[in-house]
């Protein structure tokens, strides 16, 4: 099984891009440690020492960790993924009760910020109320002539794919 791994070391996040889709009850699930679960896949991931949060999407497992055992975490997550895909994959149940803003932050950490950080930019998630998300570009992205393109083609496409409850994305002027 080929899994692309992206190590976002300063943020202590490891992204695992999957060769096939996870069966999810929702399109994005955020899980925080500790969590009691009957699902063996989720239970196995949450039992890995050092993992504090997991974002699951159809093609991504993103783990936030707090230990120096990054290599052990990487190998243990790969073993759990191998077990999941080797067995008849069952549905990964959304057992989280995470607020939408936390889901947006997790999606931004996994999908959006790595791209922006390569150009020394970032975004701040300011608010999410009544379907309206307000963000602010920071760093080199603030005032960038391509900011509107990034907003539409990177940020909006990603967030709207995983969170259809977002009706519009507003950009706060700096």
What's the structural blueprint in terms of helices and strands?
Elements lengths: L3 E5 L4 E5 L10 E5 L7 H7 L4 E7 L2 E6 L4 H17 L13 H19 L2 E9 L2 E8 L7 H16 L5 E4 L3
Parallel strand pairs: 7-8
Antiparallel strand pairs: 1-2, 2-5, 3-4, 4-5, 6-7
In short:
The protein is of the alpha+beta class and 174 residues long. The protein has helices spanning 40-46, 70-86, 100-118, 147-162; strands at residues 4-8, 13-17, 28-32, 51-57, 60-65, 121-129, 132-139, 168-171.
Q: Into which percentage range does the β-strand content fall?
A: 25-35%
Q: Report how far apart the termini are.
A: 45 Å
Overall 3D shape? globular
CATH topology of the largest domain: Ribosomal Protein S8, Chain: A, domain 1
Binned, the helix content reads 25-40%
Fourth-tier CATH superfamily name of the largest domain: Scaffold protein Nfu/NifU, N-terminal domain
Q: Report the top-level CATH class of the largest domain.
A: Alpha Beta
Number of strands: 8
Write down the overall mean pLDDT.
87
Number of helices: 4
**Tell me about the biggest sheet?**
5 strands, antiparallel
Q: What is the radius of gyration?
A: 16 Å
Helical/strand content category: alpha+beta
How many domains comprise the coordinates?
2
Order of helices and strands: EEEHEEHHEEHE
Q: What is the name of the CATH architecture of the largest domain?
A: 2-Layer Sandwich
**Physical arrangement of strands within the biggest beta sheet:** 1-2-5-4-3
